[in-house]
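Is zinc ion placement plausible here? Inputs below.
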Amino acid sequence: MNAPATSIRFFNTLTRRKETFTPIEPGKVRMYTCGPTVYDYAHIGNFRAFLFEDLLKRWLEYRGYTVTHVMNITDVDDKTIRGAKKQQIPLEQYTAHYTNAFFEDIKALNIKPANHYPKATNHIPEMIALIETLIQKGYAYKASDNSVYYAIKKFKNYGKLSHIKIQTLKKGARVKTDEYDKEEAQDFALWKAWTPEDGDVFWETPLGKGRPGWHIECSAMSMRYLGETFDIHCGGVDNIFPHHENEIAQSEAATGKKFVNYWLHNEHLLVDGKKMAKKFGNFYTLRDLLKRDFDPIAIRFLLLSTHYRAQLNFTFEGLDAARAAVERLRNFMRRLQDADGKGSGGKVAALVREAQACFSEAMDDDLNISVALGALFDFVREVNVLLDAGLVSRSEANEVAGFMQRLDGVLGVVGKMEKKEVLPKEAEELIGAREEARKARDWARADALRLKLREIGVIVEDTPQGVKWSLEKKR
Ligand code: AMP
Ligand code: ZN
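Reply from A.M.:
I modeled the complex. Tokens:
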């Protein structure tokens, strides 16, 4: 549609500034987004991350780029193993349930599918190869517990993403858990030697019997599908440290090349000022909300409509307002179907041009969705004024509808509008005459009129609520 633009700017966590986006290969974008850890149903905080990534991808596509998007499924880590053990079922069975649920949820939220959804358990050989390279190059070592750790002191750029300082690192201090805080920056586990808590979750490999650490999974899977250097890597801000810091350390030490050019991180969804998280118990899953009859598209709109780098406090009032906003857009589309005014003398075309320019300029500026939506709703208001005055012609209405649909390719909230059926004038008269005949109990005439209507493609039905009509579907 549009030629790839060079004017898109993103805030890059790596440099802490907005930068003009230039992909490695012109016209193509390779992006990796950290996917769900399938140990439970994802909560709407997680979906804030996935929806921001969906918006990013849709915007790049709107701007004419071909995007290759990879989202991993973390189906083996500390949390999934703990969950499967608690339910006393095999890990695979446990994670399959939550993986399927995740795919159902993203469909409900109208999130466009990624090109690849690699599962960690299907990529153990790639992880082993990467760890072996790191051992060979002196960045990794086997410790006395038989696990393999990454020596963060060896990687001189350790901390470049999260800006942590590691001067105070205690000699020999190591961390084996997947998640830890900045204060605990230590040598971290690449390969975890089997312990009885792992039960039957292990792989027999040249590194010994064990399982991968979480961080190596994303380095191995992203490079497997996107190459050693790719354009964009996303995740929530909680992923900056340690997860993404460790991904950089692993990947760049192994390849000697820059891993990712642009790092984009979304801020958190909060509840009463606190991050929505499983561990705080302050979360809603999408399922919780759908059971209470909330519209998934209103949830989509709510989570999208705040700039991704601003925190967003979840409230039910906010959700109501989002529903109303979506309804406004849909009503506007319905109104356009009826428009048959005398024409605005170029006003509509000017409004479309202005709205298109404002929307695009805002989105190019690090996905400034609030300004973009502001321009869109101003546009809707102004065209509504022209509609009220009967000044929007059929062809102008079509132009506006086409524009709205293009924007909806980015927002994904309006969807396909059913074409409203319009009764031909002739049929209106025949239906009226048939009603008269029925009132006069002239059944023969009523039937003849029904047949006549049928001939012009109108089906009438007598129901307790009165006469209903529909148009015969055209093939
Ligand atoms: P997880 O399944 O925990 O690996 O998280 C999946 C994604 O959701 C990651 O990108 C996280 O950074 C992100 N995330 C987790 N909690 C929140 C939250 N409250 N708000 C926004 N993003 C979040
Ligand atoms: Zn990841």
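Short version: The pocket of adenosine monophosphate (ligand 1) is lined by residues 34, 36-37, 45-46, 48-49, 235-236, 238-239, 266, 268-269, 275-277 (CB under 6 Å).
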